Amino acid sequence: MLEDLHKRVKYSRLYRADGVYRLYIHFGANDRNIHTISWFEVINDRLRVFVRVHRLKPTDYYDSQTAKQYKVEIEKQFREIIEDCERGREKVPLHKRLRDDVVPVYDEKSMKHQVDALRFCCSMKVSALYADTSTGKSKIAIDLAVSRFEAGRIKKVLVFLPVATKANFQEQIKTWCTCRDIYWKLVGHESISASDTIFLSALNYTDSKTMIIIDESHAIKTPTTNRARRVALICEKTNYKLVMTGTPVTEHVHDLYMQYQVLSPQIIGAKDWQEFEESYMIMGGRLGNEIIGYKNLEYLTSLVEPYTYQISKEECLDLPAKHFTTHYCDLNEGQARLYEREKRWLLKVIQGNFLRVTDIFQSFVRMQQICSGSYRSAEGYTEDVSTNKLELLSVLPSNEQAVIFCKFIFELEMLVKFYGREKCALFSGQNPRKRDSELKEFIKGKRQYFIATMQSGGTGLNGLQEVCRHMAFFSNSFSYFHRKQSIGRIDRVGQQSEMYVHDLCTTAKIDEKIMQNLIRKGNLVDEIRALMADKTKLKKDIENL
Predict the structure, then answer these.
(1) What is the β-pairing status of strands 424-427 and 449-453?
(2) Distance in angstroms (rounded) separating the CA atoms of residues 192 and 31
(3) 122 has which bridge partners?
(4) pLDDT one-digit tens code per residue, 229-281
(5) Quick one: pLDDT band at residue 226, thresholds 50, 70, 90?
(6) How far apart are alpha carbons 394 and 331 in whole angstroms?
(7) Domains of the chain by start residue, with CATH
(8) 328 bridge partner residues
């Protein structure tokens, strides 16, 4: 596009060096007091206009306001030419336009599957790396950044990732990054959505010489969230992007939309979420706003396949065996009373005319809380009761370290009281400043139990597998994704022993329902939506809980 534009614009100058391709044009004021630079550059597969105005007198500063005015004027003057160049560009298939030719840079510690993935990513400007936990996707991403830096494509890297994994990723950079001249900036998923300052800092940091890595990219799956919108806006400023996660689809196929949208809107081709929904989803339900099926999935797969590389743990790693055991205990008298109370409340709600999915979901959560020893009613009534689950902890060996995952904060507090604070390393959203040091103490053997919530400790943590082979779920998530990620903390490279995963459950039917759903690798929310279509069946299902 730039060469075509160069032929049409008088006094233009084509610049090529260090992986940068620009067309400079003569536009704007230039004298002893002001210096203007205007150029065209292909960013994110689109022809973009850039203007920089530097005023030397009476004070030395960059005049962003005048630069914006010049940019608007250039886009207006060149509109027809730009559109003509864009039409010419569209005649070339997208996967050819997004090809790259970078020599992969890796060391002798790289495993074959990592080298194969790196070669694939080096061949494309944008890619999706869907790799199971423990397959070393962080090293692949870091080697990719080094490869692009050595080829002159980039100078710096921006990484979006869960806040809980920042320290671990920083360690990965220290371990695997062979080039100390690359600038790295790590931004938490949670931070980019909550802080305007952090968002603007990341936006200003990013330019055409920046590579963006989105780790645990399923975190941006919802296009209506502040997080996803801001990440997408930043991604528009650069050509080189990598999304990576162990579970690209945590609930539905539509989880893929935003992950490819930030790579390039042209990959799927839907101009917005509504068009994607109309093309690939079958909507139904009582109000017509629920996903009840999918269509055109083979076509969708063909669109994303040229940019996607998948790594399966079973295919590339030889890890020790895992043993799963479910242990049961009865509800005590107080729990049984509260459990029946919650059932009666839910059955009463079902008979009403304004039943919502959230009503059932929240009631299931309260039932699960009762099984763990605490009750928070919909009306705000609170009652704490004990639980026989604590007795099930005896299945963990008394002379070995163990990881215990919980769903609720009150469970962490209960376990700390049970074991004693001196034996426990805590990792949750309640101790963000101290949790990394607690993790290190556990790895060093100073604490016997690593107690974490699945939301905070279930992704990105490394090192647990080197000291621990036992894991217990004091309670489970409704989603198989959270469970899979949590097990991946010990089921990864570095594990030398057979692993034992213990599920601590009560005989209450809600625990059985959750475990059956996890065995099917499903999501309980989907099951609730399906049941809502038939109130009679839903009522019977609740009565059997």
Answers:
(1) parallel
(2) 41
(3) none
(4) 999 999 999 999 999 998 888 777 888 999 999 999 999 988 888 899 889 98
(5) very high
(6) 18
(7) 2-92 (no CATH), 96-316 (3.40.50.10810), 322-543 (3.40.50.300)
(8) 505
List CB contacts of 450: < 8 A, sequence separation 6 or more: 401, 402, 403, 404, 424, 425, 427, 439, 442, 457, 464, 468
Please name every residue paired with 13 in a beta bridge, in sequence order, or none if there are none: 24
The token pair at 357 is: 């999915």
**CB–CB of 538/532 below 8 Å?**
yes
| E strands in 132-245 | 156-161, 183-188, 210-215, 240-245
Q: How confident is the model at residue 50 (pLDDT cuts 50, 70, 90)?
A: very high
Range 347-354, long-range pairs (CB < 8 A, 24+ positions): 347/539, 347/542, 347/543, 350/535, 350/538, 350/539, 350/542, 351/539
The torsion angle over the Cα atoms of residues 347, 351, 355 and 358, rounded to 10 degrees, is 0
CB contact at 8 A, 2 and 14: yes
Which residue carries 């610049």 as its tokens? 15
CA angle 214, 200, 194 (to 5 degrees): 70
Lowest mean per-residue pLDDT among 202-211, 251-260, 466-475: 251-260
Helix (H, G, I), strand (E, B) or coil at 485: helix
Query: Which residue has tokens 């070995």?
Result: 400
Pair of tokens at residue 255: 């989880």
In this structure, what token pair is assigned to residue 2? 């730039």
Cβ distance 268 to 304 under 8 Å? yes
Q: Using DSSP, how many helices (H) and how many strands (E) does the chain show?
A: 25, 21
- Is the per-residue pLDDT at 291 higher than 80? no
pLDDT (0 to 100) of residue 523: 65
